[in-house]
Design goal:
Blueprint: H1 12-24, H2 26-34, E1 45-50, E2 55-60, E3 63-64, H3 66-77, E4 82-87, E5 96-99, H4 100-116, E6 124-127, H5 133-145, E7 148-151, H6 158-168, E8 172-176, E9 179-181, E10 184-186, H7 188-196, E11 204-208, E12 222-224, H8 225-229, E13 241-242, E14 246-252, E15 260-265, H9 267-280, E16 288-291, H10 298-310, E17 314-318, H11 329-337, E18 341-344, H12 346-353, E19 370-374, H13 380-390, E20 397-400, E21 434-437, E22 449-455, E23 465-466, H14 470-478, E24 489-493, E25 499-504, E26 508-511, E27 514-517, H15 518-526, E28 531-541, E29 545-554, H16 562-575, E30 584-588, H17 601-608, H18 625-636
Parallel strand pairs: 4-17, 6-7, 6-8, 7-14, 8-11, 11-12, 16-17, 16-18, 18-19, 19-20, 29-30
Antiparallel strand pairs: 1-2, 3-13, 4-5, 9-10, 14-15, 15-23, 21-22, 22-24, 24-25, 26-27, 28-29
Helix pairs in contact: 1-2, 3-4, 3-10, 4-5, 6-7, 9-10, 12-13, 17-18
The structure holds 5'-O-[(S)-ethoxy(hydroxy)phosphoryl]adenosine (WTA).
5'-O-[(S)-ethoxy(hydroxy)phosphoryl]adenosine binds at residues 252, 297-299, 374-377, 399-404, 425, 487-489, 501, 504, 510, 515.
Length: 637
């Protein structure tokens, strides 16, 4: 077995030893783990960092190619092990499997296509694809030749796609004719065509034929995937990468309108995602692991592609949705592939829990060893349902806290090894020095307390910068509390040191597990010709976690109507994507503002949540009368 597994933590005492070692001698700790991987050239310096710049560099001077560690290394010892079980949207379609050897061949072949196209190390490649094996192949093919992939979730609109392509100046786009999602077909190519009218950097689109839908075609700029790889060799030398060379860019929402292109590096990211995957999920070779995320998000990058493959794991990738053809699809898939580790999001759990438990009766869950949750705070009801109906009160649940920016899981129990606690992420992983601070940045030293979560020391997979905007990286993550990384989340800690993440402390709202900055949504609404100004806030929703409400001021001569509200919602869908569509839009004559002109979002949140008695003192507002108007409008609805 691969020496990485010597670092698998299998008892509480192992955990304590690892945790202590990672604090006392972090460089020794991480270099011993890094040494279990294949490096083209060993590193000279384990860690160099200065968070006042801010800069974090791991394994400096080391060279590697992550795909060698994810593919070739396993092919050398067990070429026929299954890397991917791919389950199509429609259970009647043909499922596919890829052994490690088959995946390597496909990756190399596509990488040769990219090279023929002139793509080289450092070039950015945008990937906008459904959840098909070719998405994984495209990602790894980029990494094989050192191209920086920028995967954009295939639910984003054409303008959101164009903004991301232009920000990274991508040279090539990889997409598909369409996507199957439940009983829907999404015309990806049409969305791409529209986006590309505004993306001069893209020279070519490679299009995988998935839905066989009619598409607009231009022989100069479009090439079918099957033609692109036709006759190409399945050997492709991996490009040597510096440990600190960028591996990918992945966009996340922030508190301003522009998405943040988080840049992850090759070396540290590989080491941390593999180590955390193996330990949190207690993965043992031979197990079948399934994460229900989409590769368009960080969970898909770290815990569907790189982490599991670096560990030689066998994973299930699913194209579809939990409700299609019926709400038992997840459990069907768990049974079909004998899934041992199952990783999903609270929003999916809540949606599943809405259906009578009859639908899960008869499914065999006995093979499940670890259940995981990610993406937002898990509520007690969702935890209880997951623990009882899926875990049968014996399978441990890991609540994993992390972010696009952290690259890997920072706080979680280790499935069945360290003690779990309902609705708590519990303890930081070895090497993660978490701390709570108050609003002034003073550390909360008592064990139990509540405050703002920070991390005080680098871990290998922290995003190194925001693409093209290092100043913003500094401002967002390292300026609130100098010397500490600020993730933007609040947390509480119990008397045993377990953390529970309580939610965002900034203007990001998590809706159905998707991070949405309210600023870009407001910008979209403000672009509507009838709108003067708007404010978007999140309020509690029993399935989505949060829902979005938009308060909009329109021009004097415009009256509120259902058509107007629908067209405002549609504007958001067009500009960002359906995931960002506000659930409710209320036309108002004003927004509650402070005397200095700042919108009081706290009041808007309380109003949307129906907490009229918890508004606090509104007499200091510039315009308290609008609060009464909003209350009246909401009561009437
Ligand atoms: C939230 C997803 C509570 C948090 C991996 C974080 C969570 C944001 C949890 C990042 C959790 C993620 N408990 N909140 N277990 N996991 N979050 O970048 O607010 O899509 O900052 O990464 O999701 O979302 P992102």
């Amino acid at each position: 077995m691969n020496a990485l597994y010597d670092h698998k933590i299998t008892s509480v005492s192992d955990f304590e030893i690892a945790r202590k070692k990672a604090i006392d001698s972090p460089e020794v700790f991480w270099s011993e783990i890094a040494e279990t991987f294949e490096w083209i050239k060993p590193w000279d310096t384990v860690l160099q960092y200065d968070w006042s710049i801010p800069k974090t560099e791991w394994f400096l001077g080391g060279q590697l190619n992550i795909t060698v560690n994810c593919l070739d290394r396993h092919v050398a010892t067990h070429p026929d092990r299954i890397a991917l079980y791919w389950e199509p949207n429609n259970p009647d379609d043909i499922a596919k499997t890829y052994t490690y050897k088959e995946l390597l061949d496909a990756v190399n072949q596509f990488a040769n296509g990219l090279k023929n196209q002139g793509i080289k190390k450092g070039d950015r490649v945008c990937i906008y694809m459904p959840m098909i094996p070719e998405l994984t192949i495209a990602v790894l093919a980029c990494a094989r030749i050192g191209a920086v992939h920028s995967v954009v979730f295939a639910g984003f609109s054409s303008s959101a796609l164009a903004a991301r392509i232009n920000d990274a100046q991508c040279a090539l786009l990889i997409t598909a004719d369409g996507a199957f999602r439940g009983d829907k077909i999404i015309d990806l190519k049409a969305i791409v065509d529209e986006a590309l009218t505004d993306c001069p950097s893209i020279k070519k689109s490679v299009v995988f034929q998935r839905t066989f839908s009619e598409v607009r075609w231009d022989n100069r700029s479009d090439v079918w995937w099957h033609d692109f790889v036709e006759g190409l060799s399945t050997n492709c030398q991996p490009t040597p990468m510096e440990a600190e060379d960028p591996l990918f860019i992945l966009y996340t929402s922030g508190s301003t309108g522009k998405p943040k292109g988080m840049v992850h590096s090759c070396g540290g990211y590989m080491v941390y995602t593999a180590y955390s995957f193996m330990n949190v999920f207690q993965y043992t070779p031979g197990d079948v692991y399934w994460c229900t995320a989409d590769i368009g998000w960080i969970t898909g990058h770290s815990y569907m592609v790189y982490g599991p493959l670096a560990c030689g794991a066998t994973s299930v990738h699913f194209e579809g949705v939990p409700s299609y053809p019926k709400w038992d699809r997840f459990w069907q898939i768990c049974e079909k592939y004998k899934v041992n580790q199952f990783y999903t999001a609270p929003t999916a759990i809540r949606a599943l829990a809405k259906h009578p438990t009859k639908i899960i009766e008869g499914y065999d869950f006995s093979q499940l060893k670890v259940l995981g949750s990610v993406g937002e705070p898990i509520n007690q009801e969702a935890w209880d349902w997951y623990a009882t109906h899926i875990g049968k009160n014996k399978t441990p649940i890991v609540d994993t806290w992390w972010q696009t920016e952290t690259g890997g899981i920072l706080i979680s129990s280790l499935g069945g090894v360290t003690p779990g606690k309902a609705i708590f992420a519990t303890t930081p992983l070895p090497g993660v020095q978490a701390a709570l601070v108050d609003e002034k940045g003073n550390p909360i030293i008592e064990t139990a307390g509540e405050g703002i979560l920070t991390v005080n020391y680098p871990w290998p997979s922290i995003a190194r910068t925001i693409y093209g905007d290092h100043q913003r990286y500094k401002e967002v993550y390292f300026s609130a509390f100098p010397g500490r990384y600020f993730p933007g989340d609040g947390a509480l800690r119990d008397s045993e040191g377990n953390y529970r993440i309580t939610g965002r402390v900034d203007d990001v709202v998590i809706v159905s597990g998707h991070n949405l900055g309210t600023a870009p949504i407001e910008n979209a609404i403000n672009a509507h010709p009838d709108v003067v100004e708007s404010a978007v806030i999140g309020y509690p929703h029993d399935v989505k976690g949060n829902a979005l409400m938009a308060y909009a001021i329109v021009y004097d001569n415009i009256a509120s109507s259902d058509e107007l509200i629908q067209s405002i919602r549609q504007t958001v869908s067009d500009q960002i994507g359906p995931i960002a569509k506000p659930d409710r839009v209320l036309i108002v004559s004003g927004l509650p503002k402070t005397r200095s002109g700042k919108i009081m979002r706290r009041i808007l949140r309380k109003l949307a949540a129906g907490e009229f008695d918890a508004l606090g003192d509104i007499s200091t507002l510039l315009n308290p009368e609008v609060v009464e108007e909003i209350k009246a409008a909401l009561t009437k609805k």
